Design the sequence.
């Protein structure tokens, strides 16, 4: 090719490409693609989100919303890596334990004003208990779309086969305590199946033990987050009892054992009610859903929260906030309530929840969901949670052996984590 | 102008033969050079740049902090156990991997019918996906997993392999050795088959025992391969990540938290990208120093070099 021919070819291709590129820019200015990262890959959940996304299109034809499921286990890590790589999503789900990190960071767009201005939104209906974690200086930074109490799923077939009283019977006679629950678990474990599974704990995710140790009145750290709670007497008592239940009674599967309640392998599991979707459709066992047992410190309930937020300082932040206002308005909140217990007081009644949760009986909704949300305390989070989680996990590993010295291990937990909490 | 005698109207062509050759040479190495610049040199420079900053991903702040991250490196109470875990892992891996690979290579260096089947069998884990391999092992190593099941047949109560510090370290080392021993085995096998047979004949005539033949002939003759495999294995051992992430997540305690996993925790889990970058500079220096030492040692250890 001569130089002249090359020049001509370049000019010609530029002539073709440039207008195309320009057209692309002009087109991109009109169309808005919002991306929301989520940690559920459940098809029913995705179908509902896509339905809400389509609904938004009715009033905003140029906006499409894609929902990007990230793996649950590494969700926050993947999200922050996307942010670090300069490719953050427009909206994202956030775990309650990371709330402090995100809300205090300045990375999230403020929502209060936009929600108040949205017609029919009725922000006052959203309970303060639910929004407390996501509010800073009376400004809401993320909407808690799921306020889900921890509860106990029971396999009554296994419990009765082991000759024990079912939790429902224990509740009726006022004997639904941790001592009796652990005795039931031991009875089933002795009969050859497994007793109680604290779901997703896996001897790593220790914050899920909150649903256990709150029964003793124990807390991982003080209200202000500055003081380690692992050496306090309630925590020592709770962990001593748990250690005994695992390594002496065999009431809980040991470290490294994978047992799935929903496959019918265990008598009971502690998890959030949204897991009801995992119950077997074919050949189901006789299951029940009951509140957490009473601990030595009395009745209690624990809530896990998930919120959804829009990132600030993004090209489409305004549209993202607007979509958030649409996604969480009363009408869509009711749709979301079939999977995610709502933060709106108006929806927190047996009638509304019963319509959207066909799997649960009215008693289960009343006693577990509504009572749990009304009285529950959210799992404790902290700024810099990932490092704190990891530090405590490493120290707690010493507890998960048969001959562990419980008070000594708990002292080492506080020794390791105290400098991080005080920061 | 270097050619004053040339007529002014007779312009020298730009593409002289020498220039053409040079251009062709540069074009040949261009893809490789571009790759190294894009994926090695630029990231290396960036990591050094990041290591002098505090980068808060969420708040989107990026502040110059000078040598603060390097100061932190010296004061980090977690670093000594992490470096110790890395050292134990690497030492265990290199010793076990090389001796097993050499043993297998010697055993398989026979003219027997069907020996190819065994060579293939021992090599096959190398081509298995690392993550799949590790996940299968994680099932086998559970307290109620396959290995303890086999031990129970013989009346032995196996430990909870991944849950006690010593056995957890042994487990990750052995899983890694079984995965990659085939590669070193093949390299050793090739080296063994390259040893001239007349050397052994001469030794036999002189009455050398098989052990003496191995020590005096085989080992010196394959010493370049031993050096090569040990460099590859040590450098590889310092980069171990997937096995730790899948099998132990660095636990129990920090007993299997090797440097790369610690770096990942700091940068990607705790969002301390500046400090994570500092740790990767440390890793880079360790690898560089180790390779340099091994390269120097070749003069003493390696019997001959082609």
Sequence:
């Amino acid at each position: 090719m001569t130089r002249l021919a090359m020049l001509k070819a370049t000019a010609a291709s530029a002539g073709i490409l440039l207008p195309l590129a320009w057209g692309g820019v002009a087109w991109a200015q009109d169309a808005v693609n919002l991306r929301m990262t989520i940690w559920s890959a459940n098809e029913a959940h995705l179908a509902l989100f896509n339905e809400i996304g389509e609904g938004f299109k009715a009033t905003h034809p140029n906006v499409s919303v894609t929902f990007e499921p990230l793996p649950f286990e590494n969700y926050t890590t993947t999200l922050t890596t996307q942010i670090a790589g300069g490719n953050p999503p427009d909206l994202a789900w956030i775990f309650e334990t990371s709330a402090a990190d995100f809300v205090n960071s300045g990375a999230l767009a403020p929502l209060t004003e936009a929600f108040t201005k949205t017609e029919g939104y009725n922000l006052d209906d959203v309970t303060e208990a639910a929004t407390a974690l996501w509010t800073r200086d009376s400004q809401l930074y993320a909407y808690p779309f799921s306020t889900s109490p921890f509860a106990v799923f029971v396999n009554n077939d296994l419990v009765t086969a082991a000759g024990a009283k079912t939790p429902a019977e224990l509740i009726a006679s006022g004997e639904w305590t941790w001592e009796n629950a652990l005795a039931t678990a031991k009875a089933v474990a002795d009969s050859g199946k497994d007793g109680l599974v604290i779901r997703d704990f896996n001897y790593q995710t220790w914050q899920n033990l909150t649903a256990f140790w709150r029964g003793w009145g124990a807390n991982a750290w003080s209200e202000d987050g500055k003081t380690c709670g692992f050496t306090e007497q309630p925590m020592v008592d709770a962990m001593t009892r748990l250690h005994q239940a695992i390594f002496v009674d065999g009431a809980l599967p040991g470290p490294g054992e994978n047992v799935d309640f929903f496959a019918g392998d265990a008598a009971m599991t502690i998890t959030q009610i949204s897991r009801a979707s995992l119950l077997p459709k074919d050949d189901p066992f006789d299951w029940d859903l009951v509140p957490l047992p009473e601990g030595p410190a009395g009745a209690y309930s624990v809530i896990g929260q998930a919120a959804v937020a829009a990132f600030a300082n993004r090209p489409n932040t305004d549209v993202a906030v607007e979509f958030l206002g649409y996604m969480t308005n009363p009408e869509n909140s009711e749709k979301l309530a079939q999977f995610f217990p709502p933060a709106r007081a108006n929806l927190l009644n047996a009638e509304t929840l019963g319509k959207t949760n066909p799997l649960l009986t009215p008693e289960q909704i009343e006693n577990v969901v509504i009572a749990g949300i009304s009285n529950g305390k959210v799992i404790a989070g902290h700024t810099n949670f990932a490092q704190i989680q990891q530090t405590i996990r490493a120290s707690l590993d010493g507890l998960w052996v048969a001959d562990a010295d419980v008070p000594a291990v708990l002292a080492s937990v506080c020794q390791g984590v105290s400098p991080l909490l005080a920061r | 102008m270097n050619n004053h005698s040339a007529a002014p109207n007779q312009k020298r062509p730009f593409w002289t033969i020498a220039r053409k050759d040079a251009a062709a040479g540069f074009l040949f190495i261009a893809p490789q050079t571009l790759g190294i610049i894009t994926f090695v040199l630029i990231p290396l420079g960036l990591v050094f740049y990041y290591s002098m900053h505090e980068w808060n991903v969420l708040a989107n702040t990026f502040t110059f902090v000078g040598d603060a991250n390097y100061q932190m490196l010296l004061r980090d109470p977690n670093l000594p156990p992490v470096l110790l875990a890395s050292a134990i892992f690497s030492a265990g891996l290199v010793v076990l991997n090389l001796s097993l690979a050499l043993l297998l290579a010697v055993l398989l260096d026979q003219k027997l019918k069907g020996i190819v089947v065994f060579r293939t069998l021992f090599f096959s884990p190398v081509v298995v996906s690392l993550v799949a391999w590790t996940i299968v092992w994680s099932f086998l190593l559970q307290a109620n997993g396959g290995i303890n099941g086999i031990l129970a047949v013989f009346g032995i109560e196996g430990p909870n392999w991944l849950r006690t510090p010593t056995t957890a370290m042994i487990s990750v080392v052995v899983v890694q050795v079984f995965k990659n021993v085939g590669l070193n085995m093949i390299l050793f096998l090739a080296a063994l088959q390259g040893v001239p047979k007349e050397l052994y004949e001469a030794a036999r005539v002189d009455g050398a025992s098989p052990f003496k033949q191995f020590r005096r002939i085989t080992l010196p003759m394959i010493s370049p391969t031993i050096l090569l495999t040990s460099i590859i294995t040590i450098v590889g051992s310092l980069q171990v990540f997937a096995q730790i992430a899948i099998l132990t997540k660095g636990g129990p305690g920090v007993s299997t938290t090797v440097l790369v996993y610690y770096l990942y925790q700091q940068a990607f889990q705790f969002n301390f990208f500046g400090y994570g970058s500092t740790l990767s500079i440390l890793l880079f220096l360790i690898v560089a120093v180790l390779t340099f030492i091994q390269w120097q040692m070749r003069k003493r250890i390696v019997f001959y070099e082609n």
Residues 73-301 of chain B form a domain with the MetI-like fold fold (CATH 1.10.3720.10). The first helix of chain B runs from residue 17 to 50. Chain B touches chain A at residues 55-60, 141-145, 160, 162-164, 249-254, 257, 265, 268-271, 273 (CB under 8 Å).
